[in-house]
Structure formats: structure tokens, C-alpha cells
Design a protein that fits this description.
Elements lengths: L1 H21 L37 E2 L4 H6 L4 E2 L3 E6 L5 H18 L5 E6 H7 L4 H8 L6 E6 L2 H12 L6 E7 L7 H14 L3 E6 L10 E8 L5 E2 L2 E2 L8 E9 L6 E7 L4 E6 L2 E3 L41 H4 L18
Parallel strand pairs: 3-7, 3-8, 4-5, 4-6, 6-7
Antiparallel strand pairs: 1-2, 8-11, 9-10, 11-12, 12-13, 13-14
Helix pairs in contact: 6-7
Length: 345
């Protein structure tokens, strides 16, 4: 009995220490009393461990993929610090694209609010800035909604992030850091997480070329680029074409989920994620046609495209007349899918 009591006190002490680090009240670690389904949803309840506490219905940001949302017990926490890792420098574009996709989902719920992106001069020189022209076309984000703060030192970037994380005038805060700097320790991430909880806004910590280490973030996602599949047409996959941007997403850490890996595609037209298994796409919870992208867009004159009699060349050889079917094709600036972002691995 003495050993059992000592072990119990040790467990309680560890749980209180974890609550102190995470900024969670120790009282919330106790299992709550059973409440009816129609209980007051405004109660102050937070998920700490699976099966121990409940969460508010709008406490999570659903990613839109049924299996991934189920694995994360509803999605990413809105009022929390979330880590998005890129294991290598060349993954910077994929990490930034995934963060912008999440931002697009957030702005659907909080339209009109700006988003602040914070980084050091080093990270912006290495990874570049998001391509302003593609923000609206690919993510539905107006360029003036995305604000940037370039700090000369990491300590300055952390200070800006902490001050911004407490502001409810921002829809989200993005902090981009390279590597594993000593200043970005457990205490610094605990402060960011506590301010995000107090403001009820998400803070995304983008870590480029970083190794996993202990932080106060409830969720850590490891993101890398995935090969794009050809665009689908009525006649089948269009050979040589490039489909939607794709991400390989790995759950590195979660308080409510086991590790898992998913391949997601971002649909820039619907501003939503689809899961891909092999070469197949699975659209969860959305009613759409199998191939929503038309084979050929309508011409500028409004005429329906007709099959070309003979070979159709994208660029005719020098000295040859331009085929009529090629003249009816939309110009390159009209095809937003061909616009590549400035961020490159």
C-alpha cells in the first residue's frame, strides 16, 4: 500500500508539472462528471487526453478529410499553438503551401480579418515570400490580408509573435523559424501556446529543416511535397499534365491521435482538401463530379471547342501557320494552374 501511495503521488506530481508547462489548470486533468448531451456548450472545457475531457463543438478547425479529422479528434485546435515541420530546406514550399491552405480554411470562418506572417531575415532570404499573385487564385486570400513582419533576430521575431498571438484582430499568426535555435525552447513555446489559448486564435509554428523536440504545441505535423498526379479528363488522365498540389502529411505528435501518414491534395477551386490513395482521389463529404475540371475551356469568343482535325500543337513550328484550334485555346495567363509559386525547394 505504501508503494501504491507513493506511485500515485508521483503520478499526480508529474501531471501537475505537465499542466504547469502546458498552461493548463491541474483541476482539468481530473475526469469530469458525466454531463447530458444538451448541457451548456459554453462551459470552459478543454481536451487534455483522449477520453478524459470533452471539447467545445467549435474548438477545432476541420481539415475536411474524414480520416485525418477523425485521427485528430476533430481537426487542429483553433486556440492553440500547432507545429508544422519540414525536415529539409527543400520542403519550405510545401510547408508554406500547407500553412496557406489552413489559413484559407480559417478565413472561411473569419472573413475579412488579416493574417500576420512573422519570420527572420534569414528565413525569408532562404525560403522567400509567398507569391502575391497566386494568393487569391490558389487560396482565396487577398494580398492585403497577409501581413509580413521581418525581424532581424530570432528574439525579435519571438517577441512580435507573442504580442500578435494575444490579438483578436488577427485571424491567425504564422511564425516561421529555421532549424532548432536554442531560444525556441519549451518556455518560449509555452508562452505562445498560452497566448493563443487566451485570444482564441491559432498560432502556426513553421519549422524549416528542423528536428522534433519537446514543445508545448498539442499537435505536430510533418509536411513534405508529394508527386502530383495528371489532371483528369473525360478520356482519362491527361498525359504530361500536372494536377493539383499534393502534400504528404505525417502526424508526428498529438495528444489525441496515434502517428499516421496521409496524402492530401489541395483543390484551389473549392478551397478544400481531398485525400488521395495511390492515384485515386477521395472527396469526403462533398458532392462533386468525378472530373470537375473541363477538358478544354471555352474560347474567348464564347464558341464551344470542337475536335481539331489533325495534330494540335501548343507551339507551332517556325514558318508554319497557326492551326485554327490552337488559336481558340485560352492564353497562358488565363490558366492559373500554370502559375508556379516563388517558393521553391
Amino acid at each position: 500500500m505504501a508503494m501504491t501511495a507513493v506511485a500515485r503521488e508521483t503520478v499526480f506530481a508529474l501531471r501537475r508539472q505537465i499542466a504547469k508547462i502546458e498552461g493548463t489548470l491541474p483541476e482539468r486533468l481530473a475526469a469530469p462528471a458525466a454531463a447530458p448531451l444538451d448541457a451548456d456548450v459554453n462551459a470552459d472545457v478543454t481536451i487534455v487526453r483522449r477520453g478524459i475531457a470533452a471539447a467545445l463543438p467549435d474548438a477545432f478547425l476541420p481539415i475536411g478529410v474524414e480520416r485525418l479529422d477523425a485521427a485528430l479528434s476533430g481537426g487542429l485546435p483553433k486556440a492553440a499553438l500547432s507545429e508544422i515541420h519540414g525536415l529539409e530546406t527543400r520542403d519550405a514550399g510545401a510547408v508554406a503551401g500547407f500553412a496557406l491552405s489552413l489559413t484559407s480554411l480559417i478565413l472561411k470562418q473569419m472573413p475579412g480579418l488579416p493574417v500576420l506572417w512573422i519570420g527572420t531575415s534569414e528565413i525569408f532570404r532562404e525560403a522567400g515570400f509567398p507569391y502575391a499573385r497566386g494568393l487569391h487564385a490558389s487560396f482565396g486570400i487577398e494580398p492585403e490580408q497577409l501581413l509580413f513582419s521581418e525581424a532581424p533576430r530570432l528574439v525579435d521575431a519571438l517577441w512580435v509573435a507573442e504580442e500578435a498571438a494575444r490579438m483578436t484582430a488577427l485571424a491567425a499568426v504564422i511564425l516561421e523559424i529555421r532549424g532548432n535555435p536554442q531560444r525556441l525552447d519549451l518556455t518560449a513555446t509555452r508562452r505562445l501556446h498560452a497566448r493563443a489559448q487566451a485570444a482564441g486564435r491559432p498560432v502556426f509554428l513553421l519549422r524549416q529543416a528542423a528536428e522534433p523536440e519537446p514543445t508545448a504545441a498539442p499537435v505536430r505535423l510533418i509536411v513534405a511535397s508529394a508527386p502530383a498526379v495528371p489532371r483528369g479528363t473525360i478520356a482519362g488522365p491527361l498525359a504530361g499534365s500536372i494536377g493539383r498540389p499534393a502534400f504528404t502529411l505525417t502526424i508526428g505528435k498529438s495528444r489525441t491521435a496515434l502517428p499516421g501518414q496521409f496524402t492530401l491534395e489541395w483543390n484551389p477551386d473549392e478551397r478544400a482538401f481531398d485525400e488521395r490513395w495511390g492515384d485515386e482521389r477521395r472527396s469526403e463529404g462533398r458532392d462533386r463530379t468525378k472530373n470537375p475540371v473541363p477538358v478544354v475551356s471555352l474560347s474567348g469568343g464564347g464558341k464551344n471547342p470542337t475536335p481539331a482535325s489533325g495534330a494540335v500543337l501548343a507551339f507551332p513550328a517556325v514558318g508554319l501557320p497557326i492551326p485554327p484550334a490552337a488559336r481558340d485555346q485560352p492564353s497562358r495567363p488565363q490558366r492559373t494552374a500554370h502559375l508556379s509559386p516563388r517558393r521553391a525547394g
